[in-house]
Design goal:
alpha+beta; two-stranded antiparallel sheet; globular; binds zinc ion
Amino acid sequence: MKTPCKAACKNNGGICSGCLRTIPEIVNWRDADEETRHHIMDTLAGITSTHLCPSCQQPAQCDIAAGKSSCWCFALEEREATETNTDLCLCRACLEKQPLA
Ligand SMILES: [Zn+2]
């Protein structure tokens, strides 16, 4: 089975600092269908994105902006607000580094 796991998994407030998947994404990976897995892989790789991260200008994905009713970031523990005054979500890498609120 394909997996983005880098064998460096560390739960950092709800997101893995190794592969940048959320804990539910990791837990449900085994049972997820191919389409769901591909979607997660593509967003991790920046292939699928809705906007650029306001912090690092890399591709970032907001599932709400993509028309879903919830976003991957809902699974994370609350982070401190960023200084960038924007409604756009951070990418996974930047959100992972952001200190817990
Ligand atoms: Zn970023």
